Amino acid sequence: MEPPMTDRTPATFAAPDSAAIPLHIIDADATDTIPQSARAWAQASGFTGAAGAILLVPGADGAIAMALVGQGSAATRRRTRFVTATAARKLPAGTYAIASGLDGQALEDAALGWLLESYSFDRYTKPKPDAAQLVAPDGIDAPRIEAIAAGEALTRDLINTPTSDMSPADLEDAARSLARRHDARINVITGDDLLSSNFPMIHAVGRASATPPRLIDMSWGDTGPHLTLVGKGVCFDTGGLNIKPGSSMGLMKKDMGGAATVLGLARMIMALDLPLRLRVLIPAVENSISGNAFRPQDILTSRKGLTVEINNTDAEGRLVLADALALACEAETDLVISMATLTGAARVAVGPDLAPFFTDDDASAAALTAGAAQVADPVWRLPFHDPYEDMIEPGIADLDNAPSGGFAGSITAALFLRRFTDKPYIHFDIYGWNPQPKPARPKGGVGMGARAILAALPDLLKL
């Protein structure tokens, strides 16, 4: 039996080793930093410090004496995050230690990038050969970086796993395993119990699946400010009766990317033992087609009492989130953050690399923007634009889940969700997938925004 995703071993730093091979990080604009003993070899080999370039320098005995890693020019580094991370995959197996070329935040980024680059999703393939390992550089907070990398690895694992092994029940198992690891409390409401517990829209969206829908509710911590994370857990989205074309359905195993991201962020928070109280809410469903599937033109009554006209069953994520957000705001909380692979409109607006977010609070937006820049996890603020409120008001019900016209789809979805909150609120509309391999981010499932939130938490919650 496969271990739960939360129990898979993520990449970690190697133990200190006096025999570790020195790594020298070389700026393309400052090749005079190449160690004197390696300059002739570098010149003969044509090494220029280009981004991602690797040069092994032999010693007198023919063994590797050192390695040079190019980080490109300043202009290159503005365009490429974690530019030296590919060294983790390109270097031969062995233990390495960064000897020169980086300090401060750049050194931390390189160390984290190495761990993120070392990630491999091999659940269905033969394990990869032993990879190069890095000794934690002096001056960095190695346990923190390992905790962040482990949270990101969890997010990637959950997204990459196909729905055959990541149904709502499997997502619950992953959450329970995480709760056990960190002594968190967890409660799950499943199937028809959702109706008696007043989660009608979660039930409506998930009732057609062979795997019953559920609401996962995990809590951790007893003191400090209270943070609530809500993650969209649509484990597969056919589009429902408004069925998606095959070309749009191919990546729908990633439609639980919001849930995967909040679980990865929760792992970071708990592993770092941050001084806060955490609650994680995940409505876990599969949007399937059956005789009891919810239909276009149905009107659903939400947990909050607001009625919703269904004008497209493929706009289901906001429905399950709405019930979970209403629950979040019924309890004491200082901040609610939702994360969801919610709209294609967000991808059209900012592409797959940026995590757009919405908030009415300028200070929160500034904190997230600053945190994102610090940890190379880019975000971009989009507006809760009040004049668009009438676009989500159909007249026959309080709200429309899929306004016609095609304009401002990400904004109208965010406005829809805001109707179910009355506490400080931030919403992320993420993609959760890296379409092309990049340094520290292989093709496939990827966390977006979690590291930015983690960096911003001291300002967001006054920790």
TrEMBL record:
GO terms for biological process: proteolysis. InterPro entries: Leucine_aapep/pepB (IPR011356), Macro_dom-like (IPR043472), Peptidase_M17_C (IPR000819), Peptidase_M17_N_1 (IPR048816). The keyword Hydrolase applies. GO terms for cellular component: cytoplasm. Keywords: Aminopeptidase, Hydrolase, Manganese, Protease. Residues 312-319 form the Cytosol aminopeptidase domain. One of its GO terms (molecular function) is manganese ion binding. It comes from the Bacteria. Belongs to the peptidase M17 family. This is Leucyl aminopeptidase.
